[in-house]
Amino acid sequence: MIRALGIAATGMNAQALRVDVIAMTTSAVSSSQTVGSRLDVNVSPMGDATSLRGGMLVMTPLQGANNITYAVAQGMITVASFDAKGQGEQLSEGVPTAGRITNGAILERDLPRAPDTATLNLELHNPDPRTAMQIVDAINAYSKGRFGKALAEEQSPRFIRLTRPKAISATRFVSEIGALRTVPDSQARIVVDQRSGTIVMNSAVQILPVAVAHGNLSVRITETPNVSQPEPLSSGTTIVTPNTAIKAKETGGHFVPIGGGNLNTLIQGLNQIGVKPSGIISILQAIKSSGALQADLVVQ
């Protein structure tokens, strides 16, 4: 790479030359982008660099998995964090070794594209049988009025098969289909992050009538060691004897009924109990075990 930039790296120059940072660059290309399109570039070092602030990426080819160069990147690296260090203290925020170059690459080769055939496959990002059926019904309702026949057929919860009319190109056909609006079906799910205490629920969560009692148990342990000092001029030794005091206190424990209903009913019932996120996680797991929670409980 150094030789490609026109820098001689032989003889004395090779001994004086020192490379501090070797960076790894990545970028993403969509199927709608063509030659000349600008791409955002992510930069991260592969060596022992401590910060990329103020750095610049030299002209770097971006290759695909087939070792073919599709784009070329270069430019000033933007770092949204800092790292300050003194003799006795160091302060850092974010990751100073991760940077980004907005519009830092130019696409020089088109991606391989499928031919303009009469059959197209529409893939859902979130596979769901009911969502696939709603999309098929919406497309067929539109195509019957536009082309006089149904053009969509469900193949699986992920794929929908489209038959393109001969009188329209694939680009225009996909554009018209993409303008249709449907309401996707969401799966009832509760995601719990035990490390941060974060709990996220979607609107499809349902709960059957259930009664919940939750008690908070707090334990306090106090250590007060006693020192046994021997008499002067004696052959005894100083001994430290332990003195431990344990106090336990439990609050709450009354039953709170949670009526069957939607997400708002569940939230109101949990707020009425008045517990912390850690307690809510235990309650949700217990309600799920009782069969009253009609949702998938994902614990991370």
What can you see in these coordinates?
With 300 residues, the protein is of the alpha+beta class. It folds into 3 domains: 12-107, no CATH class; 119-178; 189-224 and 244-299, no CATH class. The protein contains 5 helices and 19 strands. The strands form 7 sheets. It has a 5-stranded antiparallel beta sheet with strand order 1-2-7-4-3, with no helix packed on it. Strands 8-10-9 form a 3-stranded antiparallel beta sheet, covered by helices on one side. The protein has a 3-stranded mixed beta sheet with strand order 12-11-19, covered by helices on one side. The longest helix has 18 residues, at 129-146. The model has no long low-confidence stretch (mean pLDDT 77).
Secondary-structure element sequence? HEEEEEEEEHEEHEEEEEEEHHEE
Distance between the termini: 44 Å
Largest sheet: 5 strands, antiparallel
Q: List how many beta strands DSSP finds.
A: 19
Q: Domains counted in the coordinates: how many?
A: 3
Provide the spatial order of strands within the biggest beta sheet: 1-2-7-4-3
Provide the structure class.
Answer: alpha+beta
Share in helix: 10-25%
Radius of gyration, in Å, reads 32 Å
What is the tally of helical segments? 5
Average pLDDT for all residues:
77
Q: Strand fraction band?
A: 35-45%
Shape: flat
